[in-house]
Each structure stands twice: as C-alpha cells, then as structure tokens.
Design brief:
Length: 674
C-alpha cells in the first residue's frame, strides 16, 4: 500500500504558515515564562528580583553551549540546519551572546532536524543519537547524529495552463511560455518543498514581469514515501495582459509637477511589470526632494490598462550639516571641519543649490612628524538645474577655490566647471563640460625646480589650464546609486589646450569597468573594479601639469601604499647623504580592485580586499612584472554624513623601483571606495 502525501500551495496554505509561525512564537514566549515562573517557585530567584539572575541560573543550565555539530548530513549544511534549531551556539562577534545548553530542547531539535530533511526530500531521515560532549566544567558541545537515508526523487514534472495558453502575438506567447524554465525542480533530483514554493514565486514574478499583473501559480506534489517518488505539477494562470495606463501624482505641495511628469512620461503604454514599478519609484526618488515615494495600482484592469498612482511625501528642501573629520594615511594626516548647506527646491523650481566649505590643517608624513605641514581649505558652491533648453538636460555650474598641500609643494587653485548631462534610456548617460583651472604654487621643494629637473614643461608656476571633458556611462545595474548587482562601464576623455587655450596640450582618456554581485541580499557582496589611464601630449605646448598627472596609492586605489606614492618620483640628495623623493605622476596607469563585503552588525561591514596597480612615466607603456599588489582587511560604517572607512593594506610584492617604500599602510577616512 502506498503512503501518499499531497503538498499544495495556495493562499489558505500561506495563511496556515503564518498561523503556525504565530503559534510557534507564542509557544516560545510561553516556554520562557514557564521556566521563569518555575525558577521563582523553586526558590532559584527571589520574587521581584528575577531580572538580576543570569539566563543560566534561570534555566538551570549546567553548561554554556560552545558548538553544535551535525554528523552524517550531506544533503544540508550545518548552517542550514542550525538556523532552525532552538539551541544556539555562543557567539562572541560582533557582540558577546552567551547561549546555554537546555537539555529539554534536545529532543525538540532532533524532531526539527528530521522534519527539515523531510522538507528537502529525505523522508526516512532519523536522528539516531544526541549526545553532550563536555569540554570543561562550564562549556560543552552538542552532537546530533543523522542517518539521512535515500531521497525521494522527482519522477514527473508537469506544467498546466488551466485557462489555455497565453494569448497575443507569437513572440509574447513564447516569452510567457518561457517562464517554465524558472522552475528549480528537476526530474531525477530530490524533491524539495522549499524549492517548490520558490519555483512558484519565481514563475509568478516572471509572468508579472511580462505584463500579466494578476498571474497566479499553484504547485502540487504527490509523494510516495514507500517508493520514494514525487509527482510535481504546476498550474499557471497568467490572467489578462495589461499595460500601464494613466499615472497620477499624489502629495505634491511645493515641488512643481512638470519635472516629475518628465520622469514618468516614458512609462504609459509599456507592459506592466513589478520591475517597471520599481523603476518609476527610483526615477521619482532620484529627484532628491521626496522623503518617501510609493507606487500603487488599481485592483482591476480597465480594457487591458492598469492605472497607477505615485504617492510622494516631500522632504524639507533645506538642510545644514556640520562635521569634523580626521584623515589618516601613511604619509599624510589631516584634520578639518566641514559645513554643508543644501537647498533642493530653490524658488520652487527644482533648482538645487549646494554650498560646501572645508577648513583644516595637514601634516606630512604624520602629525607627530610634520616635515611638511600647513593649512588646507576648499569652498565649492554648486548650482544644478534640470530642464533648461530640453526636459532631460541636467545643467551644472561648479566654481571653486582651494588651498592645498602635497608632497613637495603647496598651492592655491581657482577652478570652474560648466557641464550638461543627459540620460538616453535608463542605462546610458552622456556628459559634456568645460573646465578652467588656475594654480599658483608656493613652498616648492628644490627637487621640483622646473629649470633643473626632468619635469621640464610639466612644471609651470603658475599655470592656466582649459579643457573639455566628455563622459560616457553605461549602467547595467539594479540601482544607479549604491548598486547591489550588475555591471557599470564608463569612459572619461579630456581634451586640453589647442583651440581651448591654456598652457598645456594633451589628451587624457580613462576607461573603467565596475561589477557587483550580491548572492546574499544585504549580507554579502562581491565588488570588482578595473581601470586604465592614458595621457598623450600633443601640439605646441605638449605636456600635462604634473599635479594632475596619473597617481595611485591611498585609501581609494592601491591600499598597500600611501597617498599618491605609487608613482614615478624624483630624488634630490643633499651633501649629507639625505634624500627626498617627491612623486611626480605618470602618463600611463593600470588599476584593479577586488572587495568581498559582509555585514557584521547593522551598518557595520567587514571587507577583505586585493588591489593591483602601476604607473609609468611613458605614454602607453605597461610592465606587468612591475605591477604592485596589496591585500588586507577593512571596516565600513555607513553614517548620515558618509561612510567611515578603515583599511589596513600590506604589499604582497616589492618591485625594485619601490623598495624604499613601507611594506604596509593604514588608511582611515570618510568616503566610499567604488
């Protein structure tokens, strides 16, 4: 006689799951209350003073639980099993969390291990032994021994369309039928109840992403435990194909409606999908003037059209922030205060005004060894406006003044940038800007004397620079800002001098690729960056100002090096044998970064990184054997004023040209990596 089970997923099943979850939570609360009351009645704790006793005393536990070991499991990992157990291991990071061995929970957890195996197709799995292994008088481990048995295999997998195949053009029917490939179950593989539900969700979302807003998918499995066979079928009901209709705005007060409408104009008439709803929300939220943006739709379509409503809540248009920042680098310390003022809806025209001022002091190489030191400061106003001349053009005006300190010199700089950018589809952004810069050096090291050094025309004091910059960005990522998954490509091209004037003639091109992969949402991310840079002099005044040449090293590039220290340098030795080395930049660079990021606690992230880089003085020159590598750990904390970073990088090799450099570096500061 066959033992047949019917596993079915529906709205009522979901309600049952939620009810069971509530009952389980209530059971745990009741169990804790009973234990506490029992402890009071038995005299373990005086009434009214229970909160002063430890968890170990309250439960009568003899041991602190160090480790839970599962023996004999091959279908499931220890981590998968342990997250369902009542017993928990003691944890010390990121915060201490002592857990104790309550022996009454061991039979309960044994039942859970068997049930979990059954849910993954191992219906004969048994926990044959549970034992406590003391490590000393206070600490013990728990060992569960499992015999998994043979799995129940999927022998039949069917897909039914109760209302018939999807209607419409052949290409649409093909796309909708393709959703069957989103099923994660396969004939000949172990039956998995969790995968059954996951396949339902995946196929339902695939249908909705193809314009079927009210699609349903229901899975059913008939299981023969004796024969270890599972027959699985899915009923797919796509429902009507719908398009996005009218989009209404709700909640506007001081923000003008037209700029918001511009962000929405390409969506009416497009097939409905949850992905497009998210894009609408992101587009409106990117305006930067709303505290919240939500998108809802009508309960029923009208003539194949589904109307949307975008609900917004305006944020305060003005903000002021003040902060103090300490920057630590192997060859540079700096301390500065920063003030920011922003108005994101100036004159109720969605014009953005930002004022940013920074003032402080810098010491090279360190605050306790200030061989070179001096004040630093920067003032950067910015005006940004979208919609001039054409609805999608974004115009930016950015003047600025800076007082700076670098190895071998200090400087004053005046700069101005006038730029315009535009998105072509969601993925392609093109920008064009004209930039001018005037720099006056002072406190110059004799090593950089242009009259007697190899810098030649690259060192002019003062100098004027005028260049046009073209930017192309291709963002195939889930989000434009702070992406979790996808690939982003960019190319920046500068043309200086020539018809634009100034004292330098050069081309500069910097292509870059960034990739992100987040296999565990909000917990784990892999990020990769690759970049090369070229400066090509030309014309009557060939060259580039040495302070704007290509440099690597520091918190944002190759972290085994100090700031700008991975670079060609000039050496000046005095009669007493002491030498000073000043980095002067190069014309060719290569950079690579790999980061594995994992969330430790709330907004605290841990990072493991590997960096690679090199800079050469010649144009278009690469020497892979001279490339420098570094690796190390880091921490990130995302705060309201930015991301605080701490990285420790150690050099993995030691090219001859840089043997005088330290083998490791510590970086602490504010700002993201990439």
């Amino acid at each position: 006689m066959f033992d047949l089970l019917d596993v079915r997923s529906s709205a009522s099943a979901c309600e049952a799951d939620r009810l069971r979850a509530r009952l389980a939570a209530a059971t745990r609360m009741l169990r804790a209350a009973v234990v506490a009351c029992w402890a009071v009645m038995e005299g373990l704790v005086p009434a009214g003073c229970a909160s002063r006793r430890t968890a170990q005393e309250l439960t009568g536990a003899q041991y602190r639980l160090r480790d839970i070991e599962i023996v004999g499991n091959t279908a499931l990992s220890d981590q998968e099993i342990e997250q369902y157990l009542e017993l928990k291991e003691t944890r010390w990071l990121p915060l201490p969390d002592r857990r104790y061995l309550i022996e009454g929970m061991m039979p309960v957890d044994a039942d859970r291990i068997e049930a979990l195996h059954a849910a993954h197709g191992y219906h004969d799995a048994k926990v044959t032994d549970v034992r406590v292994v003391p490590k000393n008088d206070e600490v013990a481990d728990v060992v569960f021994v499992v015999e998994e048995g043979e799995p129940t295999l999927v022998t039949d997998l069917g897909f039914d369309w109760p209302q018939g195949p999807p209607r419409g053009p052949p290409d649409r029917r093909a796309r909708v039928s393709h959703v069957e490939s989103y099923c994660g179950l396969e004939v000949g593989e172990p039956f998995d109840a969790e995968e059954l539900h996951a396949s339902e969700d995946a196929m339902r979302e695939a249908l909705r992403d193809r314009g079927h807003a009210f699609a349903t998918v229901e899975g059913r499995a008939r299981i023969d435990r004796v024969g270890r066979q599972a027959s699985v079928s899915f009923a797919l009901v796509p429902g009507p194909f719908v398009r996005i209709g009218k989009i209404e705005l709700d909640g506007l007060q001081t923000v003008p409606e037209h700029p918001v409408r511009v962000e929405l104009e390409r969506y009416p008439g497009k097939p409905f999908s949850p992905r497009r709803l998210q894009q609408i929300q992101d587009s409106v939220d990117a305006l930067g003037v709303f505290a919240s943006v939500t998108v809802t739709h009508a309960e029923e379509p009208r003539d194949g059209v589904l109307d949307l409503v975008v609900h917004v809540q305006e944020s305060k248009p003005q903000s002021i922030s003040l902060g103090v920042v300490l920057g630590v680098d192997p060859n540079r310390w700096e301390q500065y205060g920063e003030a920011r003022y922003e108005h994101r809806n100036l004159g109720h025209t969605l014009t953005e005004l930002r004022l940013r001022a920074r003032a402080g002091y810098a010491e090279l190489p360190a605050i306790y060894q200030p061989r070179e030191h001096g004040p630093i400061g920067r003032f950067e106003p910015r005006v940004r406006k979208k919609g001039l001349l054409e609805d999608h053009l974004v115009w930016t005006l950015e003047p600025g003044v800076e007082l700076g300190l670098q190895e071998g010199y200090q400087f004053y700089a005046l700069a101005n940038r006038v730029g315009v950018s535009r998105f072509f589809t969601r993925y392609v952004e093109v920008g064009l800007s004209h930039n001018v810069r005037f720099v006056d050096f002072f406190a110059i090291s004799p090593t950089l004397d242009g009259n007697r050094s190899l810098l030649g025309l690259d060192f002019r004091d003062p100098y004027r620079l005028s260049f046009v910059q073209v930017e192309l960005n291709l963002r195939f990522t889930d989000r434009l800002v702070d992406p979790n998954d996808g690939v982003a490509l960019s190319v920046t091209y500068d043309l200086a001098g020539g018809i634009f004037g100034g004292q330098f003639d050069y081309h500069k091109i910097v292509p870059e690729v960034r990739a992100y992969w987040t296999p565990i949402a909000r917990r784990l991310q892999l990020a990769v960056r690759g970049q090369v840079g070229f400066i090509v002099p030309f014309g009557d005044e060939p060259g580039a100002p040495f302070d704007l040449k290509l440099y690597l090293g520091g918190a944002s590039t190759v972290r085994g090096w100090g700031q700008r220290r991975l670079s060609p340098y000039m050496t000046d030795c005095a009669s007493d044998g002491s030498c000073s080395r000043v980095p002067v930049g190069g014309n060719t660079s290569v950079l690579g970064n790999v980061e594995i990021r994992t969330r430790l606690w709330r907004e605290l992230w841990g990072v493991a990184f590997l960096d690679m880089g090199d800079v050469q003085a010649e144009v278009g020159t690469f020497h892979p054997r001279q490339w420098s590598y570094s690796a190390g750990p880091g921490l990130r904390y995302a705060s309201r004023i930015g991301t605080f970073r701490l990285d420790v990088g150690g050099r993995l090799n030691n090219p001859v040209a840089y043997q005088h450099q330290p083998r490791w570096a510590v970086h602490f500061g504010l700002g993201g990596m990439f």
